[in-house]
TrEMBL record:
Organism from which the protein derives: Azobacteroides pseudotrichonymphae genomovar. CFP2
GO biological process, one term: polysaccharide biosynthetic process
Name of this chain's protein: UDP-glucose 6-dehydrogenase
EC identifiers of the protein: 1.1.1.22
NCBIfam families: NDP-sugDHase
Length: 430
């Protein structure tokens, strides 16, 4: 099938590459000319495991193309996917400028009947707005063609995006009528497709993220209580996780959630509540707990160093908001680094892939290392912020020798307390 994807970001490029891998003929377009030029040279501007291989392979065999101008790639196209960004406005509402501009672009250029698929995360009602905007543009041109619209929110996770897209738990598709289902079935054939109406599909995406963020904040809140009353949160986690009604996933306490989705989507849902005269009390608490959680490691540092971090060498392992991505958007590392800089600490950082993103954000205010032990050199304290696999069993001997001290703060609770004490570390966890 001939498909166009608007937006060559994390979702658009993964969607395009995976559809091409399934045998479709895909053109991905973006307004960022530099991004498109690099993609034509098979260079992906962000880190996502296996993505560059898929881009190169499908580009080479001629199933994946990159364009700037939508008008150049509409011949025989059956579906256009909108996968542009929906960042937060200052008040927390979803900013729909990119989505609305992409819709106008479709309306200005399309010359035949087409299916428009909305992949971006958008508030309830947006798909209808998109349809109206496309129709307005068609009316201006006096073109009488038919536009079908579906909402197909994306649930991929950064770091495992290809795997998630190729093996989804389910594909949600909100439709206005059954006519379009044949095309959707053809596209997503082997997968479990759940058809809903459009508003439900739009809402499902927000509610899924809100539920996951709630589990994280819930466990962090419980962890903070546990630490006050001398209970090990890890044992509590294991104990409740075996209850099949609860399950084991998203029960890990840590230094807070981040990324380009949870924070903005929680904010947007709270705002959708306000707009409709309903206070989303639970989600407000989820957000407040998370904001507080991002400050917890800094508070622990202040206690260790008696409120004086000036000149202290603080080493950080992990900067991305989670492993296997270079995304540092709303990462707990950013909050911590801001506080450490204000307190006058010397900050030495290492991350397997997010160093460049971090350098773009903080410039020469930090010391960057491409080796985890070098980053810990002469450090007064080491903090683990992202649970990358390579941090799970370092050489404790080497680390102790490299660091001036042996204090370790574990922001993700990946180490065993008893073993760490045996290894000679002062070990503090969440
Ligand atoms: N990142 C994730 O893990 C994830 C997961 C599920 C859903 N989502 C949702 O998917 C959507 C896209 O997210 P993303 O992370 O890929 O965003 P992104 O910011 O990485 O990418 C968006 C891309 O769209 C391009 N763009 C903007 N306006 C355009 C236009 N008018 N025409 C052509 N290109 C345009 C931008 O240049 C950019 O390259 C968002 O709504 C997001 O909430 C993201």
């Amino acid at each position: 099938m001939n498909i166009v994807i608007i937006g060559a970001g994390r979702v658009g490029l993964v969607t395009g590459s995976c559809f091409a891998e399934m045998g479709n003929n895909v053109t991905v377009i973006d307004i960022d000319e530099n991004k498109i030029q690099r993609l034509r040279e098979n260079i992906v501007s962000f880190y996502e495991p296996d993505l560059e291989r898929l881009v190169r392979k499908n580009h080479k065999v001629g199933r994946l193309h990159f364009e700037i101008d939508l008008a150049n790639c509409l011949k025989r196209v059956k579906a256009i996917f909108i996968a542009v960004g929906t960042p937060s406005n200052n008040d927390g509402t979803a900013n729909l400028c990119q989505v609305l501009e992409a819709s106008r672009n479709i309306g200005r250029n399309i010359k035949h009947d087409i299916l428009v698929v909305i992949k971006s995360t958008v508030p309830v009602g947006t798909s209808q707005k998109i349809k109206s905007i496309i129709q307005e543009e068609l009316d201006k041109r006096r073109v009488g063609i038919s536009i079908e619209i579906v909402s197909n929110p994306e649930f991929l996770k950064e770091g495992t995006a290809i795997k998630d897209f190729m093996n989804p738990d389910r594909v949600i598709v909100g439709v206005e009528n059954e006519k379009v289902q044949k095309l959707i079935d053809e596209l997503y054939k082997p997968y479990r497709i759940i058809y809903t109406d459009i508003p439900s599909a739009e809402m499902i995406k927000y509610v899924a993220n809100a539920m996951l963020a709630t589990r994280i904040s819930f466990m962090n809140d419980i962890a903070n209580l546990c630490s006050l009353i001398g209970v090990d949160i890890n044992m509590v986690r294991i104990g409740i996780g075996f209850d099949s009604r609860i399950g084991t996933k998203f029960l890990y306490s840590g230094c807070g959630y981040g990324g380009s989705c949870f924070p903005k989507d929680i904010k947007a849902l709270i705002q959708i509540g306000y707009t409709n005269g309903y206070a989303m009390q639970l989600l407000q608490a989820v957000e407040a707990v998370n904001n507080n959680q991002k400050t917890i490691l800094f508070d622990k540092l202040l206690r260790i160093f008696e409120n004086n971090l000036k000149g202290k060498i603080v080493a950080l392992w992990g900067l991305s908001f989670k492993p296997n991505t270079d995304d540092i958007c709303e990462s707990p590392a950013l909050t911590l680094i801001d506080a450490l800089l204000k307190a006058g600490a010397i900050i030495q950082v290492y991350d397997p892939v997010a160093l460049e993103e971090t350098r773009r954000h903080f410039g020469n205010k930090l010391y960057y290392y491409t080796n985890m032990y070098d980053a810990a050199k002469n450090a007064d304290v080491l903090l683990l912020l992202t649970e990358w696999k390579e941090f799970y069993s370092p050489s404790w001997e080497l680390l102790k020798k490299t660091m001036g001290h042996s204090i370790l703060l574990d922001g993700r609770n990946i180490y065993d307390k008893k073993k760490m004490h045996l290894n000679g570390f002062t070990y503090i966890h969440i």
